[in-house]
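Incident log entry.

Two folding requests arrived from the same account within the same minute. Monitoring flagged them as a possible duplicate submission, but the sequences differ. Recording both here for audit purposes.

Request one:
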Amino acid sequence: MAIGNRRKWKGVIQSIEGETVTILADGNEEEMALSNISKANLIPKF
């Protein structure tokens, strides 16, 4: 599902509260419903 006219997002997960995921993408915090995410490629930072 497109969010803000975008289907692909690349950013850092800021928080997850209930069913809402907040990511920092392109310098802006974006909120999206967890149910709208069908696939995620996670890269851990150590």
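Request two (distinct sequence, not a duplicate):
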Amino acid sequence: MDSQSTQTIKLPILQPALPNEHQLKFNSYKDAKTLMQAIENIFGGNTATKKTQKKLLKQQYENFAASSTEVIEQTYERLQKLISQLEMVGEVISQKEINQKFLRSLSQEWTMHTIVWRNKPEVETLSLDDLFNNLKAYELEVKGTSSSTTNSHNVAFLSSSSTKSATREVNTAQGCGISYIITRGRFLDLASF
């Protein structure tokens, strides 16, 4: 096979993937190895570029948080995209860390549910999709509480083994750091989450 027939074979394969302005640049390469190196240099960057990209992605992950205008789906999708980009540059993050990052990044309205989920043992093995779907079930409740009040001083935690008052007694489970949350004047049993 001569070099001209090799070029005519390469171009139809590359044509759908390459923008028009780059197709002529690749005609000069005679073998697949040099062609692939040229494609990687132009589109993938060199080692320094990849290292910088990896560093920037890691910083984005560390600083990841939901914006005040974001709904849970948008936060979930942004985190999914960031994790995929980190995996493409060789950065591996444990499932537990991904789930904890998602829970910590949600807006203040999700605080009650994130506290519960961060303390559940299955958070270490649950996929991000499953965690998102479990939290999604509480979205109507969260939307209702965020529209009724934004006061952050209405949550109290009880962790003693027995609390008595003139009107009621609350027993909590021994060894369980959090078992009831009092919010907006009502008791929520965390075991039900």
